[in-house]
TrEMBL record:
This is Uncharacterized protein. It comes from the Bacteria.
Length: 167
């Protein structure tokens, strides 16, 4: 199975668990070969999900796609300036999706959707929440320039498997 497909399925599984924790019903209807990544029913309402990632660089993306990688305990990561780097990568990931004609077309035909961003940050549970709170307004401003594409945006920390609602 290709890496993107594995990432999509993992993100959908974690989103399903997150929905259950939030007392929301989740049903995966299908995963089209093209766009969007999934058609789902949330609380009885049909919507769509797109999955993307906010890796720092290609090296990190390849590393995280390797199923034989060492655990986070074996990794050495410099945290100097890393929060801003992740802020920028998440911002860029959202902006890139908002600019895509396929996202605009999907939203026109299926309504607003959900974006899940794989977020490989070595942050603790508390730091993840702080990150979201600190930068939410910036992401909302970006989303307001294209208000009809995504109604919800989530971050999935690939280290902690924590799902956070960004917007």
């Amino acid at each position: 199975m290709r890496t993107k497909k594995r990432e999509e399925e993992s993100a959908l599984l974690h989103f399903e668990r997150f929905c259950k924790q939030q007392n929301r019903t989740f049903q995966l209807n299908c995963q089209p070969e093209t766009y969007p990544d999934a058609l789902v029913t949330l609380n009885g309402r049909q919507t769509w999900i797109e999955v993307t990632s906010a890796y720092l660089d290609q090296g990190q993306a390849k590393y995280h796609s390797n199923p034989n990688r060492p655990s986070i305990r074996d990794e050495v990561i410099s945290l100097v300036g890393i929060e801003y780097q992740f802020y920028q990568r998440v911002f860029d990931a959202i902006n890139k999706k908002l600019q895509k004609n396929t996202m605009k077309e999907t939203a026109q035909t299926k309504g607003k959707g959900i974006l899940i961003i794989l977020f490989p940050a070595p942050f603790t549970f508390e730091k993840n929440h702080l990150f979201v709170e600190c930068y939410r307004e910036d992401y909302l401003k970006l989303l307001n320039h294209h208000p009809n594409i995504f109604e919800e945006i989530y971050l999935l920390n690939v280290f902690t498997k924590q799902m956070l609602k960004l917007i």
